[in-house]
Every structure is written in C-alpha cells, then in structure tokens.
C-alpha cells in the first residue's frame, strides 16, 4: 500500500476518496531508558533506545492507518501527517499520531 505525505501520487490518478484514516500509539517512557538517555544527553551522543521506541511506535501507527484504509477498500493513503506529543503526568508518555486520506488509485 502506498503511503504519501503529498496530496497526490504521480502516475497514479486518484479514482475515489474514501475519507480520513488515523493511527495512534502511546508509549510509556521506561525509567531505565530515561536514566541512560540522560547520560547520553550529558555526555553527548544519540539516545538509541528512544530512537528504537519512536521508530516502532511510528511503524505501528502507520500500520493502523493502512489497516483502516484497507477496511474502506482503499489501496493508498495521501496527505499523511505525523505528529509527536508528550502526554501523561510529568510528560511520562509519548503519543505518535498519523492521519491521512484513504484513496483508491
């Protein structure tokens, strides 16, 4: 299934618009990851554990988006927007949300 941030997909005319589709994933920040990420921030470098969690959450949210599109009979999603928000008490969780328009190309 094609997923694009653009409103159209070159070479694939849109036959039908099927409506808004979404995917949302909320992940908790593990205390140990927070401590090690803090060390990384202090000493420099990348926080690989956070990057892996973010990548997994993003992939899960996109998978939900694709599943909704498939349920509506679509084969592509256009106009996709990804958003990251800190939620929960003291910012203890991260929400990854993705929205787009399901289409049939």
What are the key terms here?
105 residues, single chain, 2 helices, Translation Initiation Factor IF3, four-stranded mixed beta sheet
Tell me what you see in this structure.
A 4-stranded mixed β-sheet has the order 1-3-4-2. The protein has 2 helices and 4 strands. Helix content is 35%, strand content 37%. The protein has 105 residues and is an alpha+beta fold. The chain has helices at 31-43, 48-71, and strands spanning 2-3, 16-28, 76-87, 93-104. Strand 3 (76-87) and strand 4 form a beta hairpin. It has a single domain (2-104), classed as Translation Initiation Factor IF3. This is UPF0145 protein IRL76_11380. Belongs to the UPF0145 family. Pfam families: YbjQ_1.
How would you briefly describe this protein structure?
The protein has 105 residues and is of the alpha+beta class. It contains two helices and four strands; from the N terminus they run ββααββ.
Assembly category: single chain
Q: Helical proportion?
A: 25-40%
Query: How confident overall, as mean pLDDT?
Result: 85
| Rg over C-alpha atoms, rounded to the nearest angstrom | 17 Å
Any idea of the CATH topology?
Translation Initiation Factor IF3
- Quickly count the domains: 1
- What does the main sheet amount to? 4 strands, mixed
CATH architecture: 2-Layer Sandwich
Strand proportion, as a percent range, falls in 35-45%
Order of helices and strands: EEHHEE
Family: Belongs to the UPF0145 family.
InterPro entries: UPF0145_dom_sf, UPF0145_YbjQ-like
Protein name: UPF0145 protein IRL76_11380
Organism: Qipengyuania soli
